[in-house]
Amino acid sequence: MTSTSSIGHADGQRWRASVFMLFAVGLFALMDAGLKLLSARYPPMQVSAMRGIASLPFVLVWVLVSLGPRRALPALLRVRWPLHALRGVLGIVMMAAFVYALRTLPLSTAYTIFFVAPLLITALSVPILGERVGPRRWTAILVGFVGVLVVLRPTGDGIASLAGLAVLMAAFGYAVSAITVRVLARTDSSQSTVVWMLTSLALGAGALALPDWVTIRSDDIALIFGVGVAGALGQYTITEAFRRGEASLIAPLEYSALLWGVLLDFSLWQVLPDGMTWVGAAIIVLSGLYLLRRERIHTEAETPP
Question: Based on the number of CB atoms within 10 Å of its own CB, is 147 exposed (0-12), middle (13-18) or buried (19 or more)?
């Protein structure tokens, strides 16, 4: 009975983790749609600052509730400051580049290019973390980059423009930031990782945006508030997803963002991806899924019974 109960509990946890992940992807897609709307009226750095400012109060409430008043402040202050500073700089560059790209690119196209981030994380884990990546995983990484070239079409009439390159820059920044999170997770709380990233966006991007700051229109306040709520809830749900389920199980669900991107693009801007974008997306997603499968096999092989 105990064994059956344990299996049932584990299955329930996996199911809940998957639901949390799907909700997180949807919430972040709604946030990105809000950022795209704002990018048409405000500079990218200002939009990045507004994203941090709007989400930070809600995240601070989550920290107080999850850790309690006594544990919250020590958890936020006893951190590895150099790595958090690096993540802050990367976060500002990443967000500003992504918002810049959203000015001209459909959400679905931006997501397709950004899906190269998991491949970059695996590739960068070799020189930075000293991890070993075998020939099959290197092949998957190279195939994924071919998919990016299909989407960008640098020799034809594709979108090998500053916007496409900006998404690649954002993906690279995300990959390096994700690797620093692996290091920070050994000593720092997940709450501190989220709070200091948003603080860096609010203060750092805000300071950089001041010279070109555009007065916020009153009819945009509700949209900015919605971006903050969606971003904060997305952060909570993705944290719960990874807390309840294995990364190899829920990480593939991130690719559902492409469906959200297509739905939002058509609903808000009446655009759909072209055929070559679908082909490139299929190549990138399949290579990413294969890479996740190989990493799971590799991890299981290294785990002692």
Answer: buried
Question: Closest Cα partner for 252 from 215, 293, 221?
Answer: 293
* Angle in degrees, CA 223, 89, 115, rounded to 5: 65
- H or E stretch including 274? none
Structure tokens that stand for 172 in this block? 């690279």
C-alpha angle with apex 121: 240 to 100, nearest 5 degrees? Answer: 85
Residue 1 has pLDDT above 50, yes or no: no
Res 114: pLDDT: 95
Do residues 107 and 257 lie in contact, with contact meaning Cβ atoms separated by under 8 Å? no
Other Cβ atoms less than 10 A from the Cβ of 304: the count is 3
Task: At 246, give phi and psi (nearest 5°).
Answer: -70, 145
b/e map 78-107, b = 16+ CB within 10 Å: ebeeebbebbbebbbbbbbbbbbbbebbbb
Q: How far apart are the first and last CA of the chain?
A: 23
d(CA 216, CA 202): 15
Note the pLDDT of residue 219: 95
Half-sphere exposure (Cβ direction) of 162: Cα atoms closer than 13 Å: 6
Alpha carbon distance 254, 245 (integer Å): 14
Contact 263, 32 (CB under 8 A): no
- Give the pair of three-digit tokens for residue 240: 């719960």
